[in-house]
Amino acid sequence: MAEDDDEDDDSQPRSSDQISKSHILEAIESDDLKSNVYEGGLKSWECSVDLAGVLTEDRQWLNGVEERGVHAIELGAGTALPTLSLFRRILELRSQTSQIPHRPPIIFTVADYNIDVLRLVTIPNMLLTWALQRQGRTPEDEQSGDLDVPPSLRDSFQKELSELGISIRAISGAWSPEFSSLLSTPSTAQTPQNTLILASETIYAPNSLAPFLDVLVSALRAGSGAVQGGSDVAIAQGPARARALVAAKRMYFGVGGGVDEFVRAFEAKTLGDGFVKEVKSVGGGVARVVLEVGLDKVDP
Q1: What is the pLDDT of residues 52-86, one digit of tens each?
Q2: pTM
Q3: How many CA atoms lie within 13 A of 168 on its CB side?
């Protein structure tokens, strides 16, 4: 990711692996986020709850998973509530159909600016979701408590995911062309044909909108251009499909970002080839929405 040769110059962007846990702790003591240091990944934001609800309530986002596979990407994952919602449902689905051979892969890519957020929150939350699902429980059942994670539990986690054809990738760093290249999966006979990109509270500031859009549109285009599977993998024929679900407040007062600006910028970025559709609206206080986003010409 971006490099910083001058350690004393705080005005320059720094890669997430240059940000220590102490920097993050210092930032969250006084702020919800701090640019180029901590982007709020230790907090579960309102819009991430909205997006998780959409994935739980509407089964269309699981359509074709067993036939086509899916690459689920969460940008700005943090506590990863949307990913956890989808992860839990796919674990249930694949556990019920574990004897089906040659199923297409399920890939979860969780991305956050801070590598320590991924290590301390995102991946542990996925392990906890898996552990509760094995016991027939959900995160809503747990009010508090600890989970011991001996090496044997981590080994079981990795083994069972492998048996179910599920893999997890974690990427840290700022949005950039290099970041976009890391999101892509190699085009092989076992490349998932569906791509679902998840993002919540990522358009709050005008200065971060352009790099976010670059990554989002790049991922949509890459997902729409995935190759079809070979004869040894049960993947349905037909064009690859890529969609994004973007959850945000209609207006971020005092910061400048919002849904209208995002839609205008997306339309300009895609030269009118994209579409934006509202799939959920939440009123009261500061209004929030969940948008479905895609590319028309390459992803009908």
Answers
A1: 999 999 888 888 888 889 999 999 999 999 999 99
A2: 0.81
A3: 25
